[in-house]
What does this fold into?
Amino acid sequence: MTGILAGAALLILVAEAVLGEKSRKTLPGYIALAAIIASIGLILITQISPAYSLTASHPVFRNDLIGVFFSIVVLIVSALVAAASIEYVKTIGNSAAYNALLLFTAIGMVLLSFAADLLMIIVAWELMSLPTYMLTGFRKRDPDSTEASVKYFILGAFSSGVLLYALSLVYLLAGSTNIATAVTALQKLAPELNPIAILALALLVAGFGLKMSVVPFHMWIPDAYEGAPPTVAALLSSATKKAAFAVAIRVFIVTLPFLQLEWSAIFAILAVATMTLGNVAALTQRMLPRMLAYSSIAQAGYILVGLAVSPYAQSTPMGLVGVLFHSFTHGVMQAAAFIAVAAVSLRLVKSNLDSYSGLGLRMPVTAFTLTIALLGLAGVPPLNGFWSKLVLFSAAVEAGSTVWWGGWLAVIGILNSAFSLGYYAWVIKRMYLDDPEETGRLKEPMGLTGVLVAAALIIIVTGLYPAPIYEFAKNASAALLSASTAAAPR
Amino acid sequence: MTYEAAQLTFETLTPWLVWFIPMLGAILTPLIAKAGDKARNYFAVAVSLLSALLAASMLPAALGGNVIHHQVEWIPALKITAGVLADPIAVLMANIVAWISFLIMVYSIGYMKDETSLTRYWFFMNFFIGNMQLIVLSDNFLQLFFGWEGVGLCSYGLIGFWNRDEEKHWVGTPGHTVWGVPQAYSPTHAGMKAFITTRIGDISFLIGLLILYSVAGTFDFIHLAENKQWASSLAAMGLLIPVGVLIFGGAIGKSAQFPLHEWLPDAMAGPTAVSALIHAATMVKAGVFLMARAGPIFYSAGSGLGVTGFFEAIAWIGAFTAFLAATQAMVAKEVKKVLAYSTVSQIGYMMLGMGVAGLVADFATGYVAGFFHLTSHAIFKAAMFMGAGALIHATETKYMNEMGGLRKSMRITYISMLLAAAGLAGVPLFSGFWSKDAILGATLSVNTPSAVPLTILASATVFITAFYSFRMIGMIFHGEPSHHLEKLEEHGHHIHEAPRVMWLPYAILAVATVAIGLTGPFFEGALHSIAGSSLEKVFELHVEEEGFKLNFVALGISIAGLGVGAFPAYRYYIARTADPSSLVSGGFLAALYRFLENRWYINALYYKVFVYPSVTIGRGLFKVFETGVIDRLSGAAASSSIAVSSVGNWIDVNIIDWFANGTAAAGTVMSRTARRIQSGVTEQYVFIFVIGIIIVILAVLALGSEMN
It folds into this structure.
């Protein structure tokens, strides 16, 4: 399926040269969207019918359900972003380059979801990251956008370096770049090498943490999300972050249990710091993109809760299921919120909260879908965000019977989640209850509202009937865990 | 009760529709509104009528003691199901909610006639009804919680309905401050206050539910009642009572019980129809209903595990709240505030009943008493609120001392309010008399040391209730018209009776108060068998066959309390043979008056301790996060910038170069460029990044050594 994406990306670049002025504006977008949807279809076909299955045991990729789950999540988000971009990019221009970069990022994310080799992780990581630096600075005449891009790039390059160093340390310890082989080797790790393992662990957390938006590696996020085109912010917060979680799961959940390190408590601490700082900071924001950026940080904190408690699961790996589930729900919700911001930014010059006053009357569809997305992010039932948080916090409560902090993690998570409704509801109040400075209906951008309605439908439908996604996440988690124990029986 | 999911028939579909139709109606309201305002208004009322008719269609089966239970799979892997449980008690509650809602919707047509943005109003009203019915008819805690959150949201939206915060919609006396804390609130402030306060309860509820679920593996009421293993597991962890109390915390928030009671009086900033529906008849009863669900489950599963502590907590909170709020109602000046304090107080009675249920020999005694009072209170309090709304419309004031002498000009309202107030005060042969008597009787038979103090609190409240009920009637309807009314007359504004669309709903409810009162013993007996069959069939509790039984001690207390309370009220406010203001001109009574008027200083204390510090911290945080990072570093405080950037340089030289690879090297080049673009910030980010790595390493070391 990566073939389709790469092919499409090249096709767009060729088309750029061939096509006339008019079709140049929108055609690349349609090609990109078609390519992403075709990839989703291909992944689903290979899952449904084993006849078309990819080679199961490729040395650098593992074709397992975790990979399928995350690649579908990132591709759905990419599809939303691509569809929304068709209209949005018209205002920036250079649509071919934009869509080609988008597709390259998508390729990187999909490869990352399936990567089972340290070297492949690095390659896919860079493939995913490099286009996003350019996309962030895509509004090149806007100093904010350029500044955001440069900041993001510096931090991103730095974290890539950290990551490369960390993985080379793992290679040093394990003697293999293949994760499965490495796991076997790490089990027999000599105790005197433990300090190196600690360094590797810390560097891994930092390297992945930058993209996962873990506090204290989050500093670039508010600037980048605010400066980047909102569609790109949607991609960063909903897709590349999730791909980072995918690879983090592969490295941490599979590898770390065999290191004699107390890593889960570290994640618990990071989770508390991340969600609390994210929510508190979000409450003080006056610009919606910045608020969403901090909210996205807080949401990463919830996912970390699942990662932290995953070793203490009893019958079902609830923690891991929660990570997957929330990756999906948060991906769609946050993408919808940023796309709504994109829609508003096409019609209003300012993006501070005051300009959202009375939006319920001025742009009803946008305001309504944004409301759905925000309520979902706050975890209001029956939207899908409620369910994924329920799973995450239940997992933490369940872990409470093994580790003392499990229950407290759940309590802090619930308090944070309740607290977060404060700033989400504030935006909704602004849109529906406050009087705008200027009234008058604004013409809503059709292309974007279509995407928003689709996203809102996903949020509502998977909220009312979350069973299939839960099942999928559960099977994927179970498959990963059984594979990892089979690879290295204790 | 078998667990197999029943077939989907009309009978099993009805409970689903009862809550689904109002929600659907709410969502359709904005579309119907395009067809015109009238169509929209009638559509909204019709939706609530349809829901009420469906609720009524469930009555015959329920009165026969049948239980309708229908369940579908929701998330099979988590053993989470969706379902409706229409047992007799739920059907009864659903009908109370549905029919009172319908009457209030009719009333709203008249009451909200001149308001704008009514689409929002109708949307929230119907959405509220749907969510309330979802609470009532759910067969599990999780689905109930969905409705729970939904009604909270609607309550927030409707309290703050007058979102432009015009002065006339404020609640409280402007200028009145306690310890410098203003006691008058705008509608949006009141909405926010309600939202945040109830949210505290919701969090407690959710935490309790999650612990319950993680141990029991189900949210299902019937599963929890059938399979009691979870209770001993919880008790072994010492969590049985805490979980019960956490769930009760939700009820405390929603039903405005001490210590989360302060939001309800200020919620009166909403339209009066909203106060009648949400803050008197239905939503605030959700907490009592939650206890009607959770109580039997904890009682049957926790018997022998010391679960009585849980019921003691409910009873004490209820009795204390009943007393606390009643005392404040004695001095309130706004008619809606009297009713609001009274609501808090009366719900305290119901909670007392629910708590006492677990402390007496037969669970049904307290349970039926609590539920009986819920029924009678819902009816007479909704009538009083609607009457109050009509009065506020007619007199253009919400203060009782600006009314007076209205009994002639608003005769129907007067009679309706008088009948309802008689119910509230517990005059014999009115509904409140029987239900309050039942609660007192149950409290008397409590077999723990709490019996005496609980009875004293409840009896004191009886007398206070009688006082403030008749004080209200007297101040509004008796004596001479106030200056305010005379001035209105001078300006050609004649006080006249409310239009029929408004008085008919509350007149109907006033008549119902009398009807229940006249048939009290029969009604209570019927309720006993209805609730009994619910308890037996759903929660597998044994209920003793017992008809109506009059408790003469309770009867004596009721009548004595009524006499002692009503007499001064009659003297000062109805006959007006003495001036009440002379009482509080000095000395102890004056101090007491101030204490009560200032809400026992609890409201002011909450603002001082929780609200203001949070606001201060919030402002401080804003400075730290925004102005702090950006402004401070953009040249204002150069010294810190220099320090940070020299660290940044060190990082560039020593660390980035160390990780020498193509990307990072490029990063170094770019970072020099970036430094020219914005001074310091990026370096600070990198600096924090590195500090983060060091912290993680230290944490691994610290925790690792602890583990080994």
Summary: Residues 90 and 116 of chain A are 39 Å apart (CA to CA). Chain A has a mean pLDDT of 83. Residues 262-490 of chain A form one domain. Chain A touches chain B through 77 residues (CB under 8 Å).
